[in-house]
Amino acid sequence: MIKNVVFDIGNVLIHFDWSALLRRYGATEEEIRTVREKAVHHELWRTLDHNTLPFSEIRKQLMESVGPECAHWIPFMLDNYSGLCALLPHTIPLLNELRSRGYRVFALSNFSEHGFALARPYFPFLNYLDGLLVSYEVRLMKPDPAIYLALCDRYGLEPSECLMVDDLQENVDGAKKAGFEGLLFENWRTPEKTICKLWSVLDASKRGTKELDKTYVAPTYARFDLELTAGGRGATVTGADGRKYLDFGTGIAVNTFGVSDPVWAEAVANQARSLGHTSNLYYSAPCARLAARLCERTGMRKVFFGNSGAEANECAIKVARKYGHDHYGPDHHRILTLCNSFHGRTITTLAATGQDVFHTDFGPFPEGFSYVPANDIGALKKALDDPDVCALLMECVQGEGGVVPLDPEFVKTAAELCRKKDILLMIDEVQTGNGRTGQLYSYMHYGIRPDVFTTAKGLGGGLPIGVCVLGEKVENVLTPGKHGSTFGGNPIACAGAITILDRLDEPMLKDIRARSAYLKEQLETLDGIRSVSGLGFMLGLEVEDAKRVVKACMDRGLLVLTAKTKVRLLPPLNVSKEEIDRAVSILKDALAAAKNED
């Protein structure tokens, strides 16, 4: 919760009403409009070396710049410089209001020692502050995050409880890097808008995240009673109460290398500063480079980018049906999936999902899907004999279905049957992909190559991405106008994804397999775990009461998930052996505690 408000001195506190000063010195409305057009007090003022020049030289330069007809504006400019804020109708009332509501108010500025010495006698609002830090005192300059931390050190403030108000985005960003909240003072001509935003931010903070969430967010998730906030690295996350947790959920297999992954964060930040978005009407390097890497690493031919796993699967479904239509006619449209599968939450991917529990409330669902039991080769052969079938879509490890790997014989038989019958083999790698199972993609454990595979989650590393990867048979099925996505191939998301994929080389994958085998061995020794299923760092634990165990783990500092009746573990791929040992120890205690609750 925000308890402290920090203002920039020069361009926020003393600019909350510039027109009032103009009127004080006799400016007419026409002259005020002229000031607006010339932006004299803002743009011109920035060009002057006002930290070192004497007032007489400043006056001279101003006269030369704006002309003698503006002479009666000069006192305004000098008073603006010296900060006669008692004349302003907004600043001091705002500071008084903040303090009356219990907020502490501070100011921070990039003044030089000389400049501040000249101006300080004219800053009456200093009497309304709880503290002040100027750059020359600590030899630091905004936007260096260290200057914001220096303010906190001086006055004993928690960065997470501070809001910085500044008119430069780079300074707001610097404050955020130090752990502050940030508010950009966007337009000095309309300070009232910033004041409204300020009160809105403070009100939201005061009400608290959980209250705001319950009031304004659609209740589609039964959330754990835990708010996560900034702080942590790798397998360690931080709660809003400051407590540290071991994260073995990774945002449901999204944070591939854990929290605050520095390699990923740097790539994302650098790309955001250069080109954040461009439509797919133009080329962009991150999109092209990521597509090349995906194809080179898998032997596939083309890539379509979307924003989620469901979108990737929607694309695969469209590819399959168009392939069937182009080669065998419009009736060749049926797609087989497996019972207990999960392929997304759009209407079509729900229809593709082989679980009855998802086939309620939102009907009618699209036709053209059939389901066969996983690992039942006889049922699969019979289903594939249907002349209308154009594709088989399946997960090699059914994640939401209970972290259940498919039998190798079933997968190889499916691949062979699809090849013989010219039925597309499509593998859903949304959760299993990107090193999660110890191979780059889970189908690689089975020695097959699909015609299409989809992935999302861990490839993005924390940003939305969805990918439909096309093999030789279907590389040219999609043509201009047949599919699209406004945000697909977003440069920022792709730049981050490249750093994920590049680190998942064979030495890294080999290490994942070794550490995940060690984790599985340790889990199999624990009382209360009946079985351990899954591959790599995608494991399901069969226990007496999964929800109770998950709650007991969270109470003890370990975050895990459920998958049907199982406890699901999805640790970051760079989790250390020491962190594994600590997680197993917590889980051991949690199992005992859950059992004792009976």
Detail the topology: elements first, then pairings.
Layout: E1 4-8, H1 18-24, H2 29-38, H3 40-47, H4 55-66, H5 74-82, H6 91-100, E2 104-109, H7 113-119, E3 131-134, H8 135-138, H9 145-155, E4 162-166, H10 169-177, E5 181-184, H11 191-207, H12 209-216, E6 228-233, E7 236-239, E8 244-247, H13 250-253, H14 262-274, H15 285-298, E9 302-306, H16 309-328, E10 334-338, H17 347-352, E11 369-372, H18 377-384, E12 389-394, E13 397-398, E14 404-405, H19 408-421, E15 424-429, E16 452-455, E17 466-470, H20 491-503, H21 506-523, E18 531-535, E19 538-542, H22 546-555, E20 558-559, E21 561-563, E22 566-569, H23 577-596
Parallel strand pairs: 1-2, 1-4, 2-3, 4-5, 8-20, 10-11, 10-12, 12-15, 15-16
Antiparallel strand pairs: 6-7, 7-8, 9-17, 13-14, 16-17, 18-19, 19-22, 21-22
Mean pLDDT: 87
Rg, nearest Å? 30 Å
Strand element count: 22
Question: Total number of helical segments?
Answer: 23
Estimate percent helicity: 40-55%
SS-derived structural category: alpha/beta
Strand order of the biggest β-sheet: 9-17-16-15-12-10-11
Low-confidence stretches: 14-18, 39-52, 71-88
Give the end-to-end Cα distance, rounded to a whole number of Å.
38 Å
> Could you state the oligomeric state of the chains shown?
single chain
Q: Per the principal axes of the C-alpha atoms, what is the gross shape?
A: globular
What fraction of residues sit in β-strands? 15-25%
